[in-house]
Amino acid sequence: MTIRSVSELQAGVKLTKDVHTPLGGLLLQKGKVLLPRDLEVLKAFLVQQVDIEVNDVDTTKIPTIKTAGKKPALIFSEISSNPGNEEVVTRKDQPLHEEYDKTLALVKNCYQLALTGELRMYEVRNQMESMLKHQKDYHILKFTPRMTSRHDYRYHNAVLCSLSSYKLAQWVGLPQKDWLQVAFAGLLHDIGNAKIDPLILNKPSKLTSEESEEMRRHTTYGYQILKNVAAVNEGVRLAALQHHEKVDGSGYPLRLNGSKIHVYARIVAVADIFHAMTLDKFYRGAQSPYVVLEQIQLESFGKLDPMIVQAFINKVTSFHNGTKVRLSNNKVGEIVFTDKLHPTRPMVSTEGQIINLMQHRQLFIEEVIS
User: How far apart are CA 49 and CA 7, in angstroms?
Assistant: First the structure.
């Protein structure tokens, strides 16, 4: 072990101590084999020196490629690390998409049957369980339905909310017995829209005050539809009624505040806002998920449950270093460092330079690619 100046380092050396930012945040972990982009990160944070492992025989070379004719041969494989507990998604999500599509079709059917109260919950439960078997392949910022239409916006919102609410229930520490019921709450929170006039529901222009009042009634309509459905618990019914309540008492329909709002409703509220803003609607296109996360963070000051918002943002932005993203200026880069205090504004390496999104506020991540 020896201490070396960062300016003297070459890619391929191994750290023997953690490296921290000037403010104390973990930058690189002990045991990390430094890649070229890691050297850039160290310099960007003005780190002067680090502790590295020195061997007589250097066995930690950075990947190199030798060429013989037109067939390059990789001599050393790249050593990468995933120091946190990030949720890394591989391309094994085809079964998830298939179950998602089946659930989507079932939700459409539920809306048609809602007026009669015959929601066929046994079938819904079985399909939900089939879809949730693949929930490990579901990353909220990466998953995109195979086929979307603005006409199907509410059905997609329902299925996505069920998946996201299921994860949120785990992230905030609810008992396992609640997870499926919270997923039902996400799936059925807007079922009251089945009673709203489609001309109002799909109106592309601003609603009149009377139309807005009718739209708000979807919460009470939803509770009425679900009150006699035996397969769901009271929390699911209250989520339909309360998901537009705000913790400061400014929401509707009952102007409840704080702990008077059921935890299912507080969870669904966060998932609903996120998916409502990141899906295409009749009157508004989809917004960047990172921009939406920042708006949700602002809503946590008096509107949304701050604990649930914090869990949501921290978990969905927990990407490993090297995750490819597309910025709002259409440049593609890789996440090289995420500050836990500002998870929506990581450092991104693109075209040979590191962009700190905390300093470049006009830029944001438009899309997570892989």
Answer: 8
Q: Same fold for the domain at 2-74 and the one at 94-316? A: no
- The pLDDT tens digits for 217-253 are 999 999 999 998 888 999 999 999 999 999 999 999 9
Question: Residue 55 — pLDDT band, cuts 50, 70, 90?
Answer: low
Question: Measuring CA to CA, how many Å separate 161 from each of 47, 79, 267, 275, 308?
Answer: 42, 37, 10, 7, 14
The CATH number assigned to the domain with range 2-74 reads 3.90.105.10
Place of tokens 């998409």: 97
What's the CA gap between 102 and 357, in Å, rounded? 39
Give the whole-angstrom CA distance, residue 17 versus residue 49: 11
**What are the domain boundaries of the chain?**
2-74, 94-316, 324-368
pTM exceeding the 0.85 threshold for the entire prediction: no
Q: Which runs of E-coded beta strand occur in 236-369?
A: 324-327, 332-337, 347-350, 353-356, 365-368
Helix, strand or coil, per DSSP, at residue 91: coil
Instruction: Characterize 159-174 residue by residue with b for buried, 16 or more Cβ atoms within 10 angstroms of its Cβ, and e for exposed.
Output: bbbbbbbbbbbebbeb
In the chain, the amino acid numbered 297 is: Q
Does residue 4 or residue 107 have the better pLDDT?
Answer: 107
Count how many residues are written for the chain.
370
Architecture of domain 94-316 in this structure: Orthogonal Bundle (1.10)
Q: How are the residues of the chain apportioned to helix, strand and coil, as percentages rounded to the nearest 5?
A: 45, 15, 45
